[in-house]
Amino acid sequence: MAMFCDLVFAADNLKIGQPEIKLSAVPPVALLVLPRIVGWKHAADLLLSGRVIDALEAQKIGLVNRVVPLDSFDTDLEAFIRPFSELSLVGLKYSKRGMLLGMEMPFLEALEQVEKMYLEELMSTRDAQEGLKAFLEKRKPVWKNR
Prior knowledge:
The protein is mainly alpha-helical.
């Protein structure tokens, strides 16, 4: 599941791995996705050994964004989420679309698509217009999420 999350927040007691190889089996999706997230060497280590790692190692290799003590998990999670909840959903949506294009296409082709998306789609939204207006007026934007 962690491989398909944009952001992963974990308690310090987390244990995570892909132990299928120990049964002479493979995790098909992880074989394709994990190297893209953590790089070839880390993915090979986990997928070919079946080794289970702790939260701090998962963070070190880029599988987890933040690790916090289990005792303060809920409070720390709220603090982690708060900055995202103050942003425009529209801006977040287009940012993620652009990131995915960058992963799927050659750089110049993706750049052309992202620029087109930015100019033709995002800039016609109410939130993009509000963001620019708020910046020029030196005030905090009021998002409509449209």
